[in-house]
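In the present case, backbone shapes were mapped to integers, as reproduced here:
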Amino acid sequence: MRKRHFVSLMAATCVFAAGPVALADNGDETPAPEPPTQIGTYEPNTYPLEQNIYELETNIEDLNTDTQEGNTKVVTLNSDILFDYGSNELSEPAKKRIGELVKDVPQGATVKIDGHTDNIPYHRGNDVLSKERAQAVADAITAARGDLNLEVAGHGDTKPVEPNESGGEDNPEGRAKNRRVEIRYDG
């Protein structure tokens, strides 16, 4: 039995190393047709990946909500769209979208970028994570608009917009709204 398992493992390894393999009706492995060697040729099975990437980029469009507080415009970015759990890395589509969001900010304006988290503890501290995320957004803004004066702050879970708990129970919807980065400027 062990020998057969080893042979199966070796066959699987060869599939990855040698390329696609088709199974004949009798269970024997026969080589699949040679893959195209021309650069730029796409196989039909690559379309779903491209479709998934398109859907991700489409979702980036729903990244923000805009509000007005007196003379101050507030652009609230949904951290769940921007960042993976515990990460401060922005995707290229997210960076591009953030650049688009600040295109109408008056030249030379002061822009405040405030990072916020929910109350779930982060191993390096929610204040650290919120500051790193705010800085990542600030870096994307600087790349798009170097003329702006940026003030970056991280607030951790100290300024929730919704309760993290309701009636002693976890409030996932409230926590999701608390995970955000806000961009504020006059205009």
